[in-house]
Specification:
alpha/beta, globular, 4-stranded antiparallel sheet, 36% helix, 10 strands, 9 helices
């Protein structure tokens, strides 16, 4: 009889019994879900449900009220400062507005991360910065300042900076916010390309239906009233599960299924 010696790998991210909030104000409670390598995973729900707060707790900007956030089976919240810093090297973050330093060129915005966290020489840092900008379609714009480019280009420059240290996980906070439909679609296509070419795990905060249905593999739906998750699954599975609140969110009140 043959035996299977395959070692089961832990999920890239695991959320265990997580409760998040501020002081006595609970935003979400009893959250439990997993995110696997290479998935594009979305946080969904109406305004005020805690999507961005959840992301901030996961990357260490805010401490949860209770529960665990595990990266590759290791508890991020209980880790020593040294181990936590090492785990933070696993991910990069693209904030809603791009959060670029306006006094620096696009290349310098990427270079400053490499200068701070690596021992590379300046020439190597400049070469890597050019490469990251080229990966997001900004070849030739290295010496431009954020004020000199469009909103969509600023988002891509922010993505290049988030990729500076070759993270295994990328977090996006409303990547399509403020973008026109065509630019938003191009950004979605870029996210797919990065996942497919680099094997990056993507975590999105989004309410944009075109993004949800075109690129998301799995999503968690957060309810602002019950202050907990209602379901986890693919967008189409969530749409068809029969929950009226989720169905209304995913159709925007349109009675016809997608």
């Amino acid at each position: 009889m043959e035996t299977d010696n395959t070692v089961q790998q832990p999920p890239v991210i695991e959320i265990r019994d997580l409760t998040i909030g501020y002081g006595d104000n609970i935003v979400q409670k009893d959250l439990n879900f997993q995110i696997n390598k290479g998935e594009i995973f979305a946080f969904m729900g109406g305004s005020g449900c805690g999507k961005t707060t959840l992301m901030r707790n996961m990357i260490g900007l805010v401490n949860p009220l209770k529960g665990g956030v595990l990266y590759k089976g290791k508890d991020f919240l209980d880790a020593s400062p040294l181990d936590r810093k090492a785990m933070m090297r696993l991910f990069g973050v693209l904030y809603q507005g791009g959060a670029l330093w306006t006094s620096l060129t696009l290349s310098q915005n990427v270079e400053v991360i490499l200068s701070q966290f690596t021992d590379l020489r300046q020439r190597e840092i400049e070469e890597i910065a050019r490469l990251k900008l080229a990966l997001v379609g900004l070849n030739g714009f290295e010496d431009f300042y954020p004020s000199e480019i469009s909103g969509g280009m600023r988002k891509r420059a922010g993505l290049a900076r988030a990729m500076a240290l070759d993270p295994e996980i990328l977090f996006f906070d409303e990547p399509s916010a403020g973008l026109d439909p065509i630019t938003s679609k191009r950004l979605d296509e870029l996210i797919i390309q990065l996942r497919d070419s680099l094997g990056t795990t993507i975590v999105l905060v989004t309410h944009e239906l075109p993004t949800i249905f075109s690129i998301v593999d799995k999503a968690v739906f957060l309810d602002p009233v019950q202050k907990t998750m209602l379901a986890v699954g693919s967008p189409n599975d969530l749409l068809n599960m029969g929950n009226p609140q989720i169905h209304e969110f995913l159709t925007r009140g349109n009675t016809e299924n997608r």
